[in-house]
Write a structure and sequence with these properties.
The protein is an all-alpha fold and about 180 residues long. The protein contains nine helices and no strands.
Length: about 180
């Protein structure tokens, strides 16, 4: 419910569903759903436009839980959101990178291989598209958009598709390229 609720319900309802799913999953020992629920809660807070410091704190709690549970893909998805937050807060090397003294963007992207969970990889590229667009780096936004587009098939139903189509029109990037490059 938490994944599809944002299409028809307030974001707060979706977050409430995801938090209830997390509680139930941890009570029943279902680590997979607990981890997915934690990740989706963090995404919902970003989508709801909560203060970034609060979203960061929630992401730290989530990342700790997910890493202890051993779910690398979901951990990397939370890290992706953290890198977006750090960029928006001006805590990266520049506004046009996710890198800082503790994170290497190129190394992170190099491990986003075909054996990884496609919606999670797609989510990273959408976050990068959004960050680069907001930083005015339209060439990199367009490149990230192309990488996300190749994985959209795996994200059907996920609300982060809205961000993809908001920052990149469905016409193959022509409008973005003509307008900004």
């Amino acid at each position: 419910m938490g994944i599809v609720a944002p299409w028809t319900q307030p974001i707060t309802t979706a977050i409430d569903f995801m938090r209830a799913a997390f509680r139930t999953a941890t009570e029943t020992g279902d680590l997979t759903y607990a981890c997915y629920s934690m990740d989706q809660s963090v995404h919902g807070l970003l989508l709801r436009d909560d203060p970034l410091d609060a979203v960061w704190r929630e992401s730290e709690r989530g990342l700790d839980f997910v890493r202890k549970a051993g779910f690398r893909d979901i951990a990397d998805n939370i890290v992706s959101k953290q890198r977006f937050i750090a960029t928006m807060q001006g805590r990266t090397a520049t506004f046009s990178t996710f890198s800082d003294s503790q994170f290497d963007e190129a190394a992170f992207e190099a491990q986003l291989t075909e054996d990884r969970i496609p919606p999670i990889v797609c989510s990273y590229w959408i976050l990068k598209l959004k960050a680069r667009f907001l930083s005015g780096n339209y060439a990199e936004a367009l490149a990230a958009s192309g990488k996300a587009k190749a994985l959209l098939w795996a994200s059907t139903g996920h609300v982060h598709l809205l961000e993809y189509f908001y920052y990149h029109r469905a016409d193959g990037g022509g409008a973005l390229r003509e307008r900004y490059c």
